[in-house]
């Protein structure tokens, strides 16, 4: 019967592309990794890698097994962490990473209700870009993140969608784009774009660079100020831009299209080792009301 070590060697080889790379990632000798894969092939009674080329390539059988093996290893990791922490004291600190582009007016009332059931809980809230918050979860600087959805998240992060936030393209009322009707998005390339980027220079999957001339910030309120000063056009959450549209400082990009904005989904994320803790589970469920009307 196959073992966890065999599956780890198999998945690592498939993901890294070679037995030597897999050995380095697992901190094992290459011969050990190779033997684990061979033993797995014997147990499965089939060849999982084509070794005729310079690098091993998954066979059809290997591709079929890979997804099942990856899921099993993720569940094994959860089981291992749970077993290791059965006798550990309850975690009483709630550390939240919040993307500033997400409305947070209801957050204090949600936290206040949580304190009734968990009165000894300490609280820390940090604001950052969504990409940076994923890194905060990874390094334990935050337990819960409230972010704009990303197309790809690490497998150890659990997530739940709690709603969406409407975004539109805005410019200052004095900006040249405010004085004309835009016929297509390609014309935006002629003007500077103001774009969200994380502190490690990564961009969100829905924050696309269109213009060759871009200024970056990791904070929507900094982008707002740059937009108000006429430095370029920017994709902003409506709730941040609305008051400046009302007082005439910002305008929604004049366009031939009726509606060029879109809804950005908002997710609550937690490292899976915390997801089943009662306090964090209750907090995650309470956050479903954060964006409710």
UniProtKB/TrEMBL annotation:
<dbReference type="InterPro" id="IPR005119">
    <property type="entry name" value="LysR_subst-bd"/>
</dbReference>
<protein>
    <submittedName>
        <fullName>Transcriptional regulator</fullName>
    </submittedName>
</protein>
<dbReference type="InterPro" id="IPR000847">
    <property type="entry name" value="LysR_HTH_N"/>
</dbReference>
<keyword id="KW-0238">DNA-binding</keyword>
<dbReference type="InterPro" id="IPR036388">
    <property type="entry name" value="WH-like_DNA-bd_sf"/>
</dbReference>
<keyword id="KW-0804">Transcription</keyword>
<feature type="domain" description="HTH lysR-type">
    <location>
        <begin position="1"/>
        <end position="59"/>
    </location>
</feature>
<dbReference type="InterPro" id="IPR036390">
    <property type="entry name" value="WH_DNA-bd_sf"/>
</dbReference>
<dbReference type="Pfam" id="PF00126">
    <property type="entry name" value="HTH_1"/>
</dbReference>
<dbReference type="Pfam" id="PF03466">
    <property type="entry name" value="LysR_substrate"/>
</dbReference>
<keyword id="KW-0805">Transcription regulation</keyword>
<comment type="similarity">
    <text>Belongs to the LysR transcriptional regulatory family.</text>
</comment>
